[in-house]
Amino acid sequence: MSLKARLGTSMLAVALILIVGCRRSENVATIDPPSQETSSEAPETAPEIQWQLDIGTDGKVESVAFSPDGGTVAGGSFLEARLWAVSDGQLLRTIEQGHTAENLAFSPDGTLLAAGLSTGGVQLNLVADGSQLPQLHTGFNNRLAFSPDGQTLATGNRNGVVWLWDLESGEQLAELAPPTDAWITALAYAPDGEIVAAGHYDGTINLWTAADGVLLHTLESGGTTNGLSFSPDGQLLAVAGTHDEWDPVIAIWTASDGNFGASGVDRQTLSLSQEGRAVAFSPDGRWLAAGSSDGIMLWEMPDATLRVTLDHIAASEDTDWVTDLAFSPDSTLLAVGRWTGILELWQIGP
C-alpha cells in the first residue's frame, strides 16, 4: 500500500485533554554581540514569551517545527516527538520515535510528521493518529526536508549523500553525491522546489537541481555548517555555523542574477559571539533569526539590521544554548528549542 493510501485510511485524532504546566514570562533580556550593536529601532511590538515548557525528558529539545496551518508546534527529543497547541501550550499528542528526533518537519499538507533520528534513519508518522509508516533507510544523524509541493522528501546522514524519495510510492528517486563524503548536517529546498541544498560537516554547502540531480555549485564556508534556510524569494541562502578560521557567524549567500549555480555568488557575514546552531528566515521575508548559546538574534531584512536579541534566563546555571528554532507560517511566532529541555514560544509580531 502506498504512503498516500495509508493517509486515506487514517482515523481522525481524538484530542488528548492533557494540560501541560506552562511558565509565562514577560522578561525580555537583550545582549549585544561583540562585533555588532543592537539597533534602537525595535520591532513595533516588543517580543515576549507566550509560553515556556519544560518537557521533562532525558536531555534537550533537539528540533522544532510548526504545522502548515500554524495551529500546532512539534518538539523532538529522546525517543519521542510531542505536538502542542500553539494557542495555549496544551499537549495534543506524543509520538514514539525509534531514537532521538534530531530533525523534524511537517509535510506541506500537514498530514505527515517526518523525524530524522540520531540512529535508525528517517521515521514518518501520520499526524492524525500517530501511526507509523514504513521507515526510510538507516544510518546516523539523519536530516530531511520536504519539497514545497509535498511530493518528494530529501534525506541525508553521515553517509554524506542526499536521497530523494517519492512520497506516493515510497520509492527512492535519486541519489545526489557530493564532491566529498563529509556527513550531512542540514538540508533545505529552495522555495520554488528547483534546488536542493545540503550543508556538510566539513563546511561545504552543495546545491543540486532537484529535477535531474545536477550539481550546480559548492559553497565553501571554511568552518562548520549547522543549519540552512532559503529566503522566501529564493535569492538568499543563510548558513549557521562557523566560517573562515572558525569565526562564529551567520553567512548569507546571494544568488548571482538569480542563479546559485553561477560562478559569482556573493557572501556577507553576520557576526555572533558563539557558534550558530540554527537559522531561519520568516515566511514573510522580514526577519532572519539565528540561535546560539548566547540567545536568539533577530535581523531585519533586507539590510540585515540587528533589531533585538532574546535571551532565556535559565532556572539553573546549566548551559542552555539554542538547539533549533522555527517561525510560524504567519511569521508572528518563533518556536525555540533549548539544550536543557525547554521549549519556548515567542511572540515576534502582532
Quick summary:
With 350 residues, the chain is mainly beta.
Written account of the structure:
It is a single chain. With 350 residues, this protein is mainly β. It has one domain (3-11, 30-50, 95-316): YVTN repeat-like/Quinoprotein amine dehydrogenase (Methylamine Dehydrogenase, Chain H). The protein has one helix and 27 strands. 44% of the residues are buried.
CATH class membership: Mainly Beta
Total helical segments: 1
Q: Strand-residue fraction?
A: over 45%
Number of strands: 27
* Structural class by sheet pairing and helices: mainly beta
**Rg, nearest Å:** 19 Å
Tally the structural domains. 1
Superfamily at the CATH H level?
A: YVTN repeat-like/Quinoprotein amine dehydrogenase
Overall pLDDT, averaged? 84
Describe how the helices and strands are arranged:
Elements: H1 3-8, E1 48-54, E2 63-66, E3 72-77, E4 80-85, E5 91-96, E6 101-106, E7 112-117, E8 122-126, E9 143-146, E10 152-156, E11 162-166, E12 172-176, E13 184-189, E14 195-200, E15 204-209, E16 215-220, E17 224-230, E18 236-243, E19 247-254, E20 266-271, E21 278-281, E22 287-292, E23 295-300, E24 305-310, E25 322-327, E26 333-338, E27 342-347
Antiparallel strand pairs: 1-27, 2-3, 3-4, 4-5, 6-7, 7-8, 9-10, 10-11, 11-12, 13-14, 14-15, 15-16, 17-18, 18-19, 19-20, 21-22, 22-23, 23-24, 25-26, 26-27
